[in-house]
Backbone:
């Protein structure tokens, strides 16, 4: 069984200057329905479904199914509160995803957002996903987007992602997306990097697939503000609901931290164990039997 969601909040107080810094980590592995706890699922056209049965023989955990629509009348979310942050707060986020189907465009967001914002194109640092394959460079691709408190948009598009151009990037392939955001005080800018990997059968990181062109993206510019108080999944709200603007995805292992990358990754439950791992497990059982 995977470890259940873990929340860590540590306050480090320096009394002499009356300042405080906080470390926070969230790792949602869907052992149980997260909405029974602190996670909040909202949406009318967009639907979120907790899948309680793992596809892995040795696991009793679940995962999340999302049918996500762009809809400016229905700001949908599957999110959990975090300690409020601003543009100066460094953070790391990760998720496991299988993308199955979509209309033409990217309509799902994975990131940090201000729940009090009027829409999902304000106060959002996100990996937006995924495209339909309708031009030479569209496909199962995630891109970096940043929206300031004033709604200013900046983005960094990823590389071409067609399989066999980049093996492992076809629809239905399990992937792990990782985003690192940090602040540069010298220029008053918020930067981010996106990397997408395959996932090994034991849950460890597989091959690097693609990223944000290997460049740093200044998502929050000098003079612009950013505020975030929630982490999770959000729909796109930049237009009305339309069947050409939807995504169908499965998610697992949502991770947020102000300290660093996840050091204890686990396999997503939407992917069965590889046959080699199942055979290895059987072999180990046989060996143990012979020793008795």
Residues:
């Amino acid at each position: 069984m995977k470890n259940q969601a873990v929340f860590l909040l540590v306050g480090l107080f320096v009394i002499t200057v009356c300042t405080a810094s906080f470390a926070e980590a969230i790792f949602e592995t869907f052992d149980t329905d997260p909405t029974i706890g602190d996670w909040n699922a909202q949406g009318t056209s967009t639907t979120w479904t907790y899948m309680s049965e793992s596809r892995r023989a040795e696991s009793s955990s679940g995962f999340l199914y999302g049918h996500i629509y762009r809809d400016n009348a229905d700001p949908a979310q599957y999110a959990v509160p975090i300690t409020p942050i601003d543009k100066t707060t460094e953070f790391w986020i990760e998720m496991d995803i299988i993308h199955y189907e979509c209309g033409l465009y990217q309509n799902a967001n994975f990131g940090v957002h201000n729940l009090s914002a009027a829409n999902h194109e304000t106060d959002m640092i996100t990996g937006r996903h995924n495209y339909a394959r309708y031009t030479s460079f569209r496909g199962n691709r995630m891109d970096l987007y940043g929206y300031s408190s004033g709604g200013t948009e900046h983005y960094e598009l990823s590389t071409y992602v067609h399989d066999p151009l980049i093996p492992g990037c076809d629809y239905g392939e399990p992937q792990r997306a990782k985003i690192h955001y940090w602040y540069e005080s010298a220029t008053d800018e918020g930067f981010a990097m996106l990397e997408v990997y395959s996932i090994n059968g034991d849950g460890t990181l597989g091959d690097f697939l693609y990223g944000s062109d290997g460049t740093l993206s200044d998502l929050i510019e000098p003079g612009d503000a950013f505020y975030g108080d929630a982490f999770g999944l959000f729909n796109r709200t930049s237009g009305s609901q339309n069947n050409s603007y939807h995504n169908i995805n499965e998610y697992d292992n949502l991770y947020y931290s102000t300290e660093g990358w996840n050091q204890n990754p686990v396999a997503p439950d939407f992917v069965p164990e590889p046959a080699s791992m199942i055979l290895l497990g059987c072999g180990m059982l046989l060996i143990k039997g012979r020793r008795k």
